[in-house]
């Protein structure tokens, strides 16, 4: 099943480029993606890991220098970022940071994927608004575009995310409050 899914997604990515050559992007064709997988790939991207390492280093430096106020503020920012990442990866909270990372490449991605827009599969309102449009799963293509550095275990986690249902945002927030995420 995994192999079939991979081959189908690869074919969609390849055919997306072919349809451009065949005559352009149909306006009623949108790319649908699983924001949880995209958020996880973004978290594992080189650029995001560098930001997190920088924030962690700055926190340590502030602590080492005895600047408690700055260390506390940086620690709080790191904690909030971690909670936001967890919400995006385990829930249906939009992967805003990941999509912002792709913003500069969005026009090229839309063309490559032969879609007129990108919509999270969890965004019911946007999906209703485009109910007549052909929907194409572009998750794997967006994950690849973020260039995550994946270990075998992280690849397995991505596969698990695909197979599991998301946690409702309210439940994820509650779990986060009690340290369950």
Question: Any overview of this molecule?
Answer:
With 181 residues, the chain is mainly alpha-helical. The chain has one domain. Helices cover 66% and strands 7% of the residues. A 3-stranded parallel β-sheet has the order 2-1-3. Helix 2 (35-43) packs antiparallel against helix 4 (68-90) and helix 2 packs parallel to helix 8.
Question: Could you give a short description of this structure?
Answer:
66% of the residues lie in helices and 7% in strands.
Mean pLDDT: 84
The span between the termini is: 29 Å
Strands across the major sheet, in which order? 2-1-3
Anisotropy-based shape: globular
> What is the radius of gyration?
19 Å
SSE class:
mainly alpha
* Beta-strand share of residues: 5-15%
State the order of secondary-structure elements, H for helix, E for strand.
HEHHHHHEHEHHH
* Assembly of the depicted chains: single chain
Low-pLDDT ranges: 1-23
Q: What's the number of helices? A: 10
Which bin fits the share of residues in helices? 55-70%
Number of domains: 1
Largest sheet: 3 strands, parallel
Tally of DSSP β-strands = 3
Q: In terms of topology, how is this protein built?
A:
Blueprint: H1 2-21, E1 29-33, H2 35-43, H3 46-64, H4 68-90, H5 96-101, H6 106-113, E2 118-120, H7 124-129, E3 134-137, H8 139-145, H9 152-163, H10 169-177
Parallel strand pairs: 1-2, 1-3
């Amino acid at each position: 099943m995994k192999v079939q899914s991979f081959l189908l997604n690869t074919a969609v990515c390849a055919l997306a480029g072919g349809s451009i050559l065949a005559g352009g992007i149909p306006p009623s064709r949108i790319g649908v993606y699983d924001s949880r997988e995209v958020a996880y790939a973004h978290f594992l991207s080189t650029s995001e890991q560098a930001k997190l390492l920088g924030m962690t280093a700055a926190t340590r430096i502030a602590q080492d220098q005895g600047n408690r106020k700055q260390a506390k503020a940086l620690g709080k920012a790191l904690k909030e970022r971690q909670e936001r990442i967890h919400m995006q990866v385990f829930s249906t909270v939009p992967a805003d940071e990941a999509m912002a990372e792709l913003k500069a490449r969005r026009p090229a991605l839309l063309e490559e994927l032969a879609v007129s827009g990108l919509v999270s599969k969890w965004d019911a309102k946007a999906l209703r608004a485009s109910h007549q449009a052909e929907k194409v799963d572009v998750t794997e293509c967006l994950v690849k575009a973020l260039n995550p550095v994946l270990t075998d275990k992280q690849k397995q986690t991505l596969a698990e995310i695909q197979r599991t249902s998301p946690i409702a945002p309210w439940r994820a927030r509650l779990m986060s409050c009690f340290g369950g995420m």
